[in-house]
Amino acid sequence: MAVIKIIPSKGRIKNIINYVLNKEKTDSRIISGMSCSLQNAVDEMNTTKELYGKTDGISYHHIIQSFKPGETDPEKAHRIGKELAKKEFKNHEVLVVTHIDKGHIHNHLVVNSVSFRDGLKLVSNKETLREIKRESNRICNRENLSIIKGSRSERSYSMAEYKLAEKGMPIWKEQLRSAIDEAKENSKNLVELKEYLKENFNIDMKVQNKNLSFLHPEKKKYCRGKKLGYAYTKEEIVRFFEKDPQRNMVNPGLPYRKADFRVPEIKSPNIGLSRIAPGIESIASKISRDIEKEKIRVEKKKERLLRSREKQVAGNRERER
């Protein structure tokens, strides 16, 4: 039973790739790059954005493909994930990573939002999700793996939520869980967690005395963390941050105060215009030099990227023969 969900994000590609490559969740045998190298996936994806001038907006699409416990092994699941990536995202760089740390094996596909072939952005909507699910179901049918039939195939939830969904549990909660999981890995405390969720997923987080609450962008009411599971309570999330003493010296368990976000007042030194003006020309010259250096750096990256593409295409053609 393969379940698909897709999460578009404005976050940094480096953060999500670091998350999916966590050694406690996977190993080198079940990690693959499609149209990108494993060692330079972050640079190659960012270079594609720079080449086409599309560094803003949605940065990547995070697809999760979950399988029924005990129905497949990591290597087979990984092959299925690679085939799905090749079929659905042939013009995009994709990192395919299989996680084996939970009760159900699942694939993570990190898809660059910008196509390396024509610079077009990947559109993520209900039809996109339906198409990805159809292809996933086709592959699973061929491999004699069970799939979700009927209207349920139009819904987005993980294997862990499947039986609960049958009982009427709202599946948007799994989207909250996935976003929080990623945000935790890229935050040092509750303040950063709140900022990451808002910036990358448009999820609001409210901190209360004993609870955390989260507002899904499509909902009008907050959902308490304990409704998502024990791991999403304030107590457990604070414990997660405190496991690593280097994460932050600030006590992450404290509730927010306005003082936490106060910008300190900076008193400007008494410098006359006659002392400032002579430096403007040198600053402008430095900026101009930096711009030229950046242009050269991007052009060199473009050349390396094109050479890499040519070698990969040639290698693929040779293997097909």
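(the above was protein one; protein two follows)
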Amino acid sequence: MATFSKSHVPQFSVDVYQNEYLHEGAGEVSAIVTVTSTGGGTTGGRPLPGAARGGAGAGVVIMVDCSGSMEYPPTKMRNARDATAVAVDTLRDGTAFAIVAGTHSAREVYPADGGLAIASDTTRHEAKQALRRLSAGGGTAIGTWLRLADRLLATGDVAIRHAILLTDGRNEHESPEDLRAALDACAGRFTCDARGVGTDWEVKELTGIASALLGSVDIVADPAGLAADFQAMMEKAMGKEVADVALRLWTPQGSQIAFVKQVAPTVEDLTARRTEAGPRAGDYPTGSWGDESRDYHISVRVPVADVGQEMLAARVSLVLPTPGVPQAEGSSAGAVQVLGQGLVRAVWTDDMAASTRINPQVAHYTGQAELAEVIQQGLEARKAGDLDSATAKLGRAVQLASASGNEDTAKVLAKVVDVVDAANGTVRLKAKVADADEMTLETRSTKTVRVKK
């Protein structure tokens, strides 16, 4: 069993990277905001209100696909049971947890009492005994699994609410509308990491689930790799120390947010997830944090000003809700604790050298966002039989991956195309591509690399 030190409350820092100089007539400013949390200590001498404080500070529900297809081959179900057992062993003492068997319905396998068990040597042993009784049979209705996970997590007094979802197939026993309704109901209530085992599941379906619930997504093409992947996922979940953190952007009169995207470690567009947080302020969800760093790309439209003028384009705050304090009038957000702040500035100049200089962080992540986009477009074109477009898009992807040093993406691209000249993006489509390689490229297309310091 893995051991973990007692959870510490992280401290947050916010750093803004930008070229604040705009040429005459320009009205849009970009910035990369790096948010870093480091473990240990407290903020302002007091524990954060949303922090895990030992005991049942975290709740985790593991959802295991037990549909009929999990029996083909039989090793798949066995690997899923073994991987879940490894995840259970990785639970920190005091963590609240449950295991759900998912088919066309959802059933709590352990503790099977409508609530959560508290991790200890005894409950871990009991959970692994219960896993041995899991068998495959039935259909797939993932929205039902998610709703049960939500109900179970709601029974625990926990700050961190997380789920792990494993499936090997498509969501064939409920409508897309039912799944969307379940995701809408669960969004903001818990985070969820999703894994597809084998090659018979739908990438867009699983990435949509992970995106809506602010979790990770990946393919485990060979079921034998499930145990190591589940252990790594659970270790990361056990490292989370504070939940429900939001990026709050305030803009002055006349300015507005064009977009907000997480750009590292993965690309995730948060623009449409804004909730109003008072006059000219909006919150964008970031989920749960441990000891980690993430980058966000923010674009702000500002009213054009004369050369020599400067203005505050946006104030960036990292905020955490304060439980039990009512929301302010005219705002959908309640009282918050500010964990860190940064400023985005705009200065108008007639110095062409200053105004045309592209900030390296902004340039890098603009390229990484384009990389994710052209991979997805290239794969879509390939599936549609538009080979010329597929070649052009995937060639551009190879060029961007090479230029940015994204070696992991470059390696997966090389399994789909023959690279003739990486620097110029000259490629040939491979005549035959394994399903696992194509799905791996699509699933991991949004993974980015950080700016080289």
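Reviewer note on protein two: The longest strand covers residues 336-349.
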